[in-house]
Amino acid sequence: MTGRVPPLAIAPSKPSGLDHVASDSLVATSSAREVARAWERFAAGEDIETGVRPEILASWYRCRDRYDVDRALDVAPGAGGDDVQRLDNDVIFTALGGLGALAGQEVERDGAVVTVTDGDGRVLGTWGDPSAQRRAEIHNLAPWSSWSEQCTGTNGMGTSLEVSGPVTVTGPEHWCEAFHRWACAGISIRDVVTGSPVASINISRWNAPLAEIVPSWLKKAASCVEQEIYRRAISEADKVISEFNKKCAQVTAPFMAMDRGGSVIAANDAAVSLLGLTGENPVVTGAIEPAQRWVPEISGLPDVVRWAKERAQGAEQWSGHACLPVRPGEDATPVTMRPVIDANSVLGMLCVFGVQEGEPYEPNPEVAVGSLPRRVIGIRNERLVLLGPSEIRYAEADRNIVWLVTERGRIQAATRGLDNVERLLTPCGFRRVHRRFLVNLHRVAELERGIKGELVLIMDSRSHEFVPVSRRHAPELRRLLGV
């Protein structure tokens, strides 16, 4: 696997030994001084929109306003817990370890360090220049320390777990002042089934910029490891569909199979009818490819799937049930979950509608809503845009990118994933009305019924902005709007 990643081929850019590096080589440039001035203002409580790269400024906002990271932190905290993330990551971490070791040999000539973390930002291994490693250990950049953004602020490892693609953090772009003489670049490796990060790989250098080739090399390295995750996802789907097919003849009720992320892989005719699918949907014959799987719009189902996965871990005979609003306008329907387990890991769930067996699901009580977000952060033309929630009429998802439709135009959200934006904006009166749309209920101008009875929201009558409402969300929306 590692052989398909090209070598870093970094030529030595300085004499060996860190003491030969100029003491101000990272912080003395005009651009670094500008970033440092912006950091001072922002850390003092100001809201700024320019002078810093948008992805870095978005990270600063998370560190200051969401995670409350101490900017004076100079040592990364130890990692909590002894358990590395599941998903049988042995092959993945072995591959990353091989890449890290190979890259470490090459960056050693450049006085740099290669680091691999799990999906929570816990360092699993470091390789590279011994002098750089000793200096890194001063800040606890060493195995079993935590470099998530939530723990240690803006940095290549932690910030890469928050966004997609390679991330570079140079000098005073770090949130914690003690790290301002480091340059780093990281990238996350993501689970193709759930979309969540399972690991990251990072290259750091003390008081000198990284080679230009580093971000592109990281992207190729991540792609190489994600090929293994993709192959595993296909293998898992094969096993889940095999179990589904074995049980199909024994089940007359609506019956479907889901992957670990809650997407439907297969469904019998009764489930296809219940869920309102067409006979052409790939789940009818079995959706092996992750991109072909179907995400059901059943309120509360994602929480039930997460609960069932946790309860069923290592317990092949476990079953549990919940009551969910499957049909619009009708009472909730019992759904029984049974795990598909291989090597003590949950690969997916078999779901039978109308059956109530096993452990009952008890939803957590509503968490008290804290203060509303001061700002919703968007990105436009390489600038950060700070929005009040009331300025946003609706949000529209284009895969993992979310667009905010506002009084100031269409702006890309700094937060990726409509589910994440929904969690941020629900306390502000926003509601999901479609798998791709989240609307501000305070900004709904008109409602219109289509020729087939479908419901459409008009968010701005002047510009004829139409937002479709899926039939599953229509009853709840009517109740909320009082119509």
UniProtKB/TrEMBL annotation:
Its protein name is: DNA-binding protein
Q: Spell out the molecular function terms from Gene Ontology.
A: DNA binding
Organism per entry: Amycolatopsis acididurans
Keyword annotations for this protein, in alphabetical order, are:
DNA-binding
Q: What's a Pfam family this protein contains?
A: LytTR
For this protein, the record's SMART domains field holds: LytTR (SM00850)
Report whether rRNA processing shows up as a keyword of the record: no
Q: Which InterPro entries match?
A: GAF-like_dom_sf, LytR-like, LytTR_DNA-bd_dom
> What range(s) does the HTH LytTR-type domain occupy?
377-483
